[in-house]
Amino acid sequence: MGDPLSLAIQVSYYAAAFLFIMGLKRMSSPVTAASGIKWAGVGMVVATAITFAYPGLHNFMLMTTAIFIGGVLAWWTGKKVAMTDMPQMIALYNGMGGGSAAAISAVELLGGGEHSLVFMVLAVLGGFIGSVAFSGSMIAFAKLQGILRKDFRFRGQNIVNVLFLAAIAAYGAFIITGQTDSTTLALFYGLALVLGVTMTLPIGGADMPVVISLYNALTGLAVAFEGFVLNNAAMIIAGTVVGSAGTLLTQLMAKAMNRSLGNVLFAGFGGESAAGDAEGVTGTMKPIEATDVGVMMAFAQKVIIIPGYGMAVAQAQHKVWELTQLLKDRGVDVKFAIHPVAGRMPGHMNVLLAEAGVPYDLIYDAEEINADFESADVALVIGANDVVNPVARSDPSSPIYGMPILDADKAANCIVIKRGQGAGFSGIENLLFFLDNTRMLYGDGQAAVNELIQAVKEM
Description:
Elements: H1 4-26, H2 33-51, H3 60-80, H4 86-110, H5 117-145, H6 157-176, H7 182-200, H8 208-230, H9 233-256, H10 261-266, H11 290-298, E1 302-307, H12 309-314, H13 317-329, E2 333-338, H14 348-356, E3 363-365, H15 366-369, E4 378-382, H16 391-394, E5 413-418, E6 438-442, H17 445-457
Parallel strand pairs: 1-2, 1-4, 2-3, 4-5, 5-6
């Protein structure tokens, strides 16, 4: 802590870290989330600005240019990207964080010089984790964006990944012991990037919320390691906070699916190769007209709305809120039920409903609202599939057996808005669609809800 400049830099970094932590804390509630983002943003500005005062730096033009380009791109994408595309945007930004940590590691390792064993271990671990997070997040982005539409699996895939990991560990050991050259580093980082790809390619879209959360945790961990390497307090604290929060969120996502993280990563469930028809699914889907649904909802006492990815794709959240307001004006008790893994990222449905202006006191988690379904006149499902599939309770042979679901099937009437008769993103047939109390309202989510609005208005 010798000279005043070093003291000012360290104090600024701790102040930035404090702002990061406070921002993350405020993001835990929808009421304060917007201000939390601003707190964290101010922290990032402080950390970035004070870095220019760091002794020994000289590439100010390159730094300024990179910050300007990155800032403009972030501002433009933030303005232009639709809320429905937010999952892939988050996957992309996760990947960029991991890639940056890996790049820092590579620069430090290429710099040579005498370093402690702790320095070398953390640099290598940060480079490995950051590389996996980068390439894995890019594959997740491509899957969510629709660029990659298939899940690539082959016999012995997990064994191949273990062999990759063993080779990476061997090259990492060479690097840690000081046997560092450009070829060894290139092989180390190249294999780590390939491992991120081969780990993520088999994972289906239904598991993307868990995968995005996992790579977020890995990025935070990589940043924390590189913070130790650079002796940067802001990176250490921010990376640790992000890593721990991402790890906890990953565990919560996996728990919400009643599956272990290993099962998500290595079982090959969640995509096209998932089990097809579940046992016990018999009967036919029974269609219904929007006018009939409108009458049913207008004269109901309690309606529970369950949003899913179909609502996001149709950008129907604003129409859903308009329908809710009409029903509430008629004295109908309307609530929203949110499953933790609904959508393509953690909290996806909460974000969409908040964008539409739905009050937070109308939105309930699965554990809070499941008991209400038995007294509900109508459960309106908009584009959700696995999170309302009763086979999770009844069919031990189903891949989703044991997964906590929303009990939409226990409502007096269940209306499902769906584009067609497909099995959904995970490839598992939904028993809910065939039950006696379920009716299918086919069509685009926004158009179907608009028809319901018109039907209620005519009452």
